[in-house]
Amino acid sequence: QAFFCLLLCIPWGSSCPPSCQCTERAGAKAVLCSSQHLQEIPKDIPRDVVLLKLDANSITRIPSNAFRHLSHLEEIDLSGNAIEKIDRAAFRGVAAGLRSLDLSGNRIRSIPKEALLALGAKLRLANNPWHCECALQEVLWEERLDPDSVRDITCHTAPRQEYVGKPLLQVLHAGANFCSVRQRSTDVAVLVTMFGWFAMLVIYVICYVRHNRERSCGHREHPPALPGARGRAE
C-alpha cells in the first residue's frame, strides 16, 4: 500500500483520461479517477497502468471486457459507485496479475460466478444490498475475500425472512445452505419431468391396447363369409 501511495505523487506525461490524474514511480503507473462523477469506465486508460482508482463515482455497470487491454493491472478500486450489474466477462484479461478488487459500497444484489473465475485477487464485497443465494455462497467458499470485509456482507434479501438483515457468515454458521435449496428444487423439477414422461407412456400404452381390442371385437362381430357358403347362396 505504501508503494501505491507513492505513485500518487509523481505525474507522468503520456496520455491520461480526461478528469483523471496519472502518476508514475519506477515504471509503475497509476490512473486516479476518484470522485469525478463518471458514469462509465473510461475507454482511454493507458495499457500499462498498474493501479486504477474509480471510486466514489456514478458507474452503474461493469461491461464485458472492460479491462481486457489492461494486462498489467494489479489493483482496481470501484468502491462507492452505483454498480448494479456485472457482466460475466467483466474482468476477462486481468485475471492473472490482479491482486485487489474493491466492489464495496455499491448496489450489487448478485454477481455471476463466471465473472470471478480465475481471479486470484483479494475481493472486497461489503456494504452491498446482497440477495443471499447459492451463487453468493459459492463466491464466499471459492474466492479470496478480504477478511475485514466478509463480516459486512449482509443479506438484504433472502429466501427466508429470518435471514434478512443478518451477516451472511452468521447465517451460514447457523446451518443455512442456500445451495442445497437449489439442489432440492432441481431434483423436484427432474422428478416432475420424469413423472410426466412416464404418464404419457402409460396413456399411450392404454390407448394402444384399447384400440387393438376394439379392432378385434369388430372382426368377431362381422366374420367374413366362407367361399362355399357364398357359392350356395348364388
TrEMBL record:
Cellular component, GO, one term: plasma membrane
UniProt keyword list: Leucine-rich repeat, Membrane, Repeat, Signal, Transmembrane, Transmembrane helix
Entry annotated with the keyword Membrane: yes
Cellular localization per UniProt: Membrane
Ranges in a coiled coil: none
Transmembrane segments: 188-209
Signal peptide positions (record): 1-22
PROSITE patterns: LRR
Membrane topology category: Single-pass membrane protein
InterPro entries for the chain: Leu-rich_rpt, Leu-rich_rpt_typical-subtyp, LRR_dom_sf, LRR_TM_domain-containing, LRRNT
Pfam families reported for this sequence: LRR_8, LRRNT
Boundaries of every LRRNT domain copy: 15-51
Family: Belongs to the LRRC3 family.
Protein name: Leucine-rich repeat-containing protein 3
Organism: Loxia curvirostra (Red crossbill)
